């Protein structure tokens, strides 16, 4: 199949450019961007001046298979991703049971084949995500694991971690950590401070994140492993990250879109859809994280999609499950940063598409000849009010319910095949 996108606003994060032009797709790959006329027989798609960008590569998505399929299945996650312009989902291993054996990884890989988008899998770093014994990293890598993480189950035994990191380095594997001191953060519901005290909620200092990051960076320095911090959300953590990069350590960092666009005050009157891990931070931390993304210190923006059913959210704030869905809201929420003048569209897609693809060694995330035609067509200025019950995800736990948003996905393509079309283009 040959597609010709005309009258597009091409967003290329690899070159950092945003230019009017056309794009040709042939046999699932980008064939050219500089031609002026459609070849004979090509299907012409008039973009009408809307934005055409590389599809989003979303690292750290929780899908409830196995064990919690009622919260999210591969099929529903695939539909949600396509509706959000996410063409590659990188799934977390914090399932029931955890993805810690090649057999379980093969099971999820087969189940993921029914999704509308590409789904890659991370595997657990330690067995059962319990931090006591490392998994069979080599076998899991051979079975298709693209990275290794225990997600938010932070190991306390540095000796176990050092062995796992050393083995991962020998295999060239990527380790993804969740920087947090588990002792300080245990039982915390919000970030410590005046707001937490006024609400009478147990809080954790942002320094818990810095302490966890400093420990992980010391292990990275000792072992030489490739390491990605899944969420850097506090200003206190940024100097340590900057020093590690300046020292030449193989370190990258990400942040969720929720921590870039919301702050601790949004919790309001105990609104559990705003309960996240780590908790929402102060406005000064949010602004510092946004600036770090603009500067390239934080490399990746992700949804940290974590579905939770109504029963686990409609509880007192301390007891409610943490996490929010984000596959469909990732792009419109992130566009708030563009409309605020904090990021350009090219900078945004550097963090949404190019950098996560590079981190995982994928060819996606760029608009260049030979790259996979994983694309999102969107109108960055289209306004709408989010209705959580209209989301494709099985779970509806979004903090943006009822929020006025700006930026709609119009169509999503995976390998040149259209997997989503908006009903109201």
Automatic annotation (TrEMBL):
Domain Dihydroorotase catalytic: 49-234
Main EC class the enzyme belongs to: hydrolase
InterPro entries named in the record: Amidohydro_3, DHOase, DHOase/Allantoinase_Hydrolase, DHOase_cat, Metal-dep_hydrolase_composite, Metal_Hydrolase
Keywords linked to the UniProt accession: Hydrolase, Pyrimidine biosynthesis, Zinc
Entry's Gene Ontology cellular component terms: cytoplasm
EC number: 3.5.2.3
GO MF annotation list: allantoinase activity; dihydroorotase activity; metal ion binding
GO BP annotation list: purine nucleobase catabolic process; pyrimidine nucleotide biosynthetic process
UniProt domain Amidohydrolase: residue ranges: 342-420
Pfam families, A to Z: Amidohydro_3, DHOase
PANTHER family given in the database record: ALLANTOINASE
Protein name per Swiss-Prot or TrEMBL: Dihydroorotase
């Amino acid at each position: 199949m040959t597609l010709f996108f005309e009258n597009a606003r091409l967003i290329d994060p690899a070159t950092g450019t945003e230019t009017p032009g056309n794009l040709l797709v042939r046999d699932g790959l980008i064939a050219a961007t500089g031609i002026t006329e459609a070849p004979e027989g090509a299907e012409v798609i008039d973009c009408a001046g809307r934005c055409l960008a590389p599809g989003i590569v979303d690292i750290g998505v929780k899908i409830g298979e196995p064990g919690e399929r009622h919260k999210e299945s591969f099929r529903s996650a695939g539909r949600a991703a396509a509706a959000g312009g996410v063409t590659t989902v990188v799934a977390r291993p914090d399932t029931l049971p955890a993805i810690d054996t090649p057999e379980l990884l093969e099971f999820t890989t087969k189940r993921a084949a029914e999704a509308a988008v590409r789904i890659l899998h991370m595997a657990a770093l330690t067995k059962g995500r319990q931090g006591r014994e490392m998994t069979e990293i080599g076998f899991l890598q051979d079975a298709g694991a693209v990275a290794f993480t225990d997600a938010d189950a932070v190991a306390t035994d540095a000796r176990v971690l050092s062995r796992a990191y050393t083995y991962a380095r020998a295999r060239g594997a990527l380790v993804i950590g969740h920087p947090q001191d588990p002792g300080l953060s245990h039982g915390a519901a919000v970030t410590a401070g005046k707001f937490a005290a006024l609400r009478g909620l147990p809080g954790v200092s942002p320094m818990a994140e810095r302490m966890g990051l400093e420990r992980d960076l010391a292990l990275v320095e000792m072992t030489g492993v490739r390491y990605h911090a899944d969420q850097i959300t506090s200003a206190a953590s940024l100097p340590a990250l900057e020093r590690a990069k300046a020292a030449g350590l193989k370190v990258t960092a990400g942040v969720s879109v929720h921590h870039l666009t919301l702050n601790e005050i949004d919790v309001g009157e105990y609104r559990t859809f705003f309960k996240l891990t780590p908790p929402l931070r102060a406005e000064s931390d949010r602004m510092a994280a946004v600036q770090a993304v603009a500067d390239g210190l934080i490399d990746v923006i992700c949804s940290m999609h974590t579905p939770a059913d109504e029963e686990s959210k409609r509880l007192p704030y301390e007891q409610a499950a943490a996490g929010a869905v984000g596959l469909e809201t990732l792009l419109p929420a992130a566009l708030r940063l563009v409309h605020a003048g904090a990021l350009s569209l090219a900078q945004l897609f550097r963090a949404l598409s190019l950098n996560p693809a590079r981190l995982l060694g994928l060819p996606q995330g760029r608009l260049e000849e030979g790259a996979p035609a994983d694309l999102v067509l969107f109108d960055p200025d289209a306004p709408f009010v989010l209705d959580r019950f209209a989301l494709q995800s099985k779970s509806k736990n979004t903090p943006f319910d009822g929020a006025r948003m700006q930026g709609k996905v119009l169509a999503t393509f995976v390998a040149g095949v259209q997997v989503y079309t908006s009903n109201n283009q």
